Amino acid sequence: MLNEQHINIVKSTIPLLEQAGPALTEHFYARMFRINPEVKDIFNMTNQHTGRQGVALFEAIAAYAKNIENLAALTSAVERIAQKHTSFNIQPEHYQIVGTHLIETLRELAADAFTTEVEEAWTAAYLFLAQVFIDREGELYLQRKLAVGGWENAREFVVTDKQAESSLVTSFTFTPVDGAEVLDYQPGQYIGIEVKPEGGQYNEIRQYSLSQKSNGKNYRISVKREGFGSDYQGLVSNHLHDAIEVGDRVSLYAPAGDFFYTEKQKPVVLISAGVGITPVQAMLQTLHDSGKENVSYLHACNNREQHSFIDETSTLISINNWQQKVWYMEGDAEFSGAMNLTAVASTLPLGDGDFYLCGPVVFMESIVKQLEALNVSRDRIHYEVFGPHANL
Prior knowledge:
In the C-terminal section; belongs to the flavoprotein pyridine nucleotide cytochrome reductase family. With 392 residues, the chain is α/β, with parallel strands linked by helices. The chain has helices at 4-12, 14-20, 23-35, 45-50, 52-66, 75-87, 92-109, 116-146, 235-243, 277-290, 310-320, 361-373, and strands spanning 155-164, 169-176, 190-195, 204-209, 219-224, 249-256, 268-273, 295-301, 323-328, 335-336, 354-358, 381-384.
């Protein structure tokens, strides 16, 4: 059980963690995958190769150590991580494996400082946090199992439609093989899809935003082709584009995610770039159904050929008399170059609107800075990062 002495000892090791940096998590992952290679099925190996997951895990460990006396500060992070874990079908036994390798990593990298007392404190701290996640994830699994259209573990779906949305993005519609209903979801959430790319050694699970409103019948995702499909870069997206066709079957995990539109009787501004348009599509359709009046949509991408859902979005904008502004880096659009909010600031509900962002991290960092410069408070800025989380 975690006690005050454990807390004090863990906090005393913060300088040690900061000195080790992401090398700590690199060592941890290398150790775990070497000894327990079976867990590769539940990890995004692309993020391992790029180093993004290692950085994200290190930041999470450091944040836990710094806030171990005030776990309320980590509530949103715990929810975000628990939601993501359920889309990988993480189970309690996985926490035992992770815990073993985390403690052994600390021992191997800091042998002199890793005394019996430090080991006891970090073990207690890890077990405490692991139980927090196990409990929350258990709640989520049960809720989804008992809900109308819900299920647990993986469920088999068949591809019933495949459609190009732009030069880089293709949509896939999945209908359950058993013909039963599917679980409803909030606009902005994602599903986990499990495939085994040709020539791959392990199954790969990826999360993709649902790009249409909830309908109880099927799910649609819209996938950008990334990289070239080799050396892990774009491994799954290229497999979906090139190998998955109508009639093929895939395994899906229930919708999850903590980024979604919530009605607050306030004006809404949706801001996206590139494939970040996908969760926005579900939001726009939902806002249309609710009769929402004060909606602004801002989108940026390289050019018209890469602009997904042009007709679908334009129809919704026109029917509802909403505002839409578009930026292209190349070619004709109302605005050219990077998105600059000062050009449209006078038309935005800066004083009371809720702002939902999705796109590349660099893009969102720029937009957050611009919004803050326009006196939009952080509690009204909501965002989704594709892949390991990054704090903006």
